[in-house]
Amino acid sequence: MNLDSTKADLVNSTQKASSLRYALITPARNEAENLERLIQSMIAQKVKPVKWVIVSDGSTDGTDNIVRKHAAEHGWIELERRPERAERHFAAKVEAFNAGYARLKNVEYDLVGNMDADISFDSDLFSFLTARFAENPKLGLGGAPFREGEVKYDYRFASVDHVSGALQLFRRECFEQIGGYVPIKGGGIDTIAVWSAKARGWHTRTFTEKFYRHHRVMGTAKHSVWRVKFKDGNKDYALGVHPLWELFRAFFQMTKPPVIVGGILLGMGYYWSVLCRKKRTMPPELVRFRRADQMQRLRALLMKPFTSRAARGGAGEVPAVSRGAGR
Fold it and tell me: pTM of the prediction?
């Protein structure tokens, strides 16, 4: 490829990105420690949002003041303040998101995103993502992988169809079709959104060419890493993961920190929920759809040694162990 064609590709990519308008919503509860870093990431973006609503969900630290300072300087940043509350759970996060979403009623946009307050990224992330939506009209939900510290998730062993809830960017029509996020206290709202979109024929994709940094280990805002693994097993059951898929997932987790114990706790959480016959939060039709997909992937994985390696990175995958990845 010559230099002229490379420049032409860059110009076309920028034009595609700028043709789609995006709006963002960030629920933030006592995120003063992280929010400034995120705001600086957004200010540096080559393609900025038409509106970014930061919802202070009963914050009692300096979150509100940080947002007000930057909102005074940048008209596309807005603060939505919600009253203080005692509980911290995922259903409340959806309520906060919906409060920000209501602020977009009179805003013209093509894409809408849910973005956590404890992440940061390079200046071309959103120009890259919006260009991917411009290229594929069937792309309903997209995002990028995250890193925690120096750990980068290995997408050789995960499905790029899943998009982590820390940053999910939806095509507006897709988000409206799935009815937005489902308020579930125990979590999994991002997973249900992904499978709801897939069940309606939309493409979902994590684009591994880019990444963002997650500055707090996912799920540890309230609990230890040990308890998070057990709760991940609970959540896998609640969100319809097939028992055989979970068995492979638990074994694979044993090879990742915390070695051995993490996989044991994950499996215990899942099969404890089976024994207790706990209620599933994912609708039955999505459970069937998800399990059929998992069994297809598992068959592809088991057959992989007997097939050509030319298809490597396509259908097969090891059941993912990272929270929110490869589900």
Answer: 0.84
